[in-house]
Amino acid sequence: MKKFLFILIISFPAFLFAVKFSLTYENSLYNGIKYFSNTFIPEFSYTNNNFSFMASMKLSNDGKFLPFYPQFYGDYYIKIKNAGIVITQNNLKIKFGNFEDYDVIDSPYSLFISSLGHSKPEASIKYEDSNFLYESRYILATYNKNGFIDKGINLKYYAIKIHNFTFGFEEAAVYVHRIFDFEYFSNPLPNFFIQIYRINNIYGNSFNDNSLMGFFAKYKSKYYNLYGQILIDDFNANRFFNPEHNTVDKIAWSFGSTLMLEKIKLKIFHAGATKYTFQPSSIDESSNAFYYGYTYYNTLELNNFPIDYQDIYIGYKYGENNLAFMIEAEYIDKIKLNTAIELVISGTKSPINPWTDKDTFDPNFNLLNESKLEKSVFLHFSVLKKFDIISLGFNSKIGKIFNVLKKVDANDANGLPYFAPSNEQKNILELSIFFKIEI
Predict the structure, then answer these.
(1) CB-side exposure of 30: number of CA atoms within 13 Å?
(2) Helix, coil or strand: residue 167
(3) Sequence-separated (6 or more) residues with CB below 8 Å from residue 191
(4) Does the global pTM surpass 0.85?
(5) Counting CB atoms within 10 angstroms of each CB, which of 227, 259, 312, 380 has the fewest?
């Protein structure tokens, strides 16, 4: 009873001043963790001219996160989804709040921002016209509380648009021991030059930020879409100018295509990342370098509650040292059907420990060069049907994982845990039905 009272309390203001209100209820028959869990998502928003206000959150007992107030609400937790303001003026959009984040590339395998749409506090300035596209986005990763550290992320991309073709440069900066960096956010220069300026000029060598960079391209026509994206962490020119010097490749890539028929979309996606790509890159504790991985958290658990590694990565959801392939078909008419088959091959992953289980890297190109690998096969299927203001749907995921990645302790200087393929197998079965009403 108390959880329904909670929903009513937080949704009541929508009936007073919001133009739109919706409530989604999802019952997960099984999600891989527990049976028959409940999820409620109330949303309300107000839009007037160039101003939009929105607020949505998730109340769930699906077992994926720690309960927020167990003595009153049992095993339910709260996660904010999209809550903030959006101001638009001609080609300019400004956002402040706590929003689900997505990449400029719309793909299940996007590289700089995870396709899972993790919600974080952010500020964003975006400009787009028929020739040019630019965004500077700040994301708060964590506060210095409960074993976490102050950590921030700044994402920027620039793109030129020529008819149906878009080509751009994308980059991200990760920094710790400060919540927000105004210069990364406000300065349109690439982060590499900002870092060089700071080291060699007024600031001195006081920053040890991690910089990632890459490129993307998109082509969109009436019948098909194509995209490509590449990410490079800590680009090292020794590869070309000093090839005798040991270097390590920290690269991720993603490609995809969509073919649009009358009522059917056929899609194909591929992505991969070399070993070490999103890891921290040093064991020098004096510089706190092991905090600088491309991850939200510097731990694999919270109060002894495990964090799924896909929720740790800022970017590509499967992290480093893997290959992924997906074929998808989508049918849209009076009913929407979506089905996909996916293959993922993974080696060891280390979101928080530099060089996985060693004190230094294996040089050059490292990808799945291990005797034991995790192999996963998934079948995704979903149905959606709308009846005026009501939507009904069904989601499922069926599959099998061989040599499941398990957390293990490292014997290196840091001693931080990492994930490695095991001898275990795991059957995957996730089934849920949902109901949504929009007013």
Answers:
(1) 7
(2) strand
(3) 154, 156, 171, 172, 173, 184, 209, 211, 213
(4) yes
(5) 259
